[in-house]
User: Which sequence fits this backbone?
């Protein structure tokens, strides 16, 4: 297998991982928001504009998913010693962690 084939396969796996981790985090945040809003009194529930809060919750989830994914990919590259097996252009996106 060449470096470009391994890099392509790595990118596909990272993409699938990003989708899964993003869905899990977004689902957790929406569920947590639903539970928090369900415990409020009816007056307080009506005063919280869900259609205004939801985009911010989703944006927070997206940023959290991206940072968690980046940390996991950097960890995997270092743990499994994949840096010499992948294309150098890919590795520029995931620099080594400084201890």
Assistant:
């Amino acid at each position: 297998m060449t470096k470009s084939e391994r890099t392509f396969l790595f990118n596909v796996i990272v993409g699938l991982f990003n989708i899964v981790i993003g869905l899990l985090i977004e689902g957790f945040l929406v569920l947590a928001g639903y539970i928090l809003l369900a415990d409020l009194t009816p007056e307080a529930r009506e005063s919280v504009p869900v259609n205004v809060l939801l985009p911010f919750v989703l944006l927070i989830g997206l940023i959290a998913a991206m940072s968690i994914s980046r940390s996991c990919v950097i960890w995997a590259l270092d743990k499994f010693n994949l840096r010499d097996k992948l294309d150098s252009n890919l590795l520029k996106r995931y620099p080594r962690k400084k201890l």
User: Anything to note?
Assistant: The first helix runs from residue 3 to 38. The radius of gyration is 19 Å.
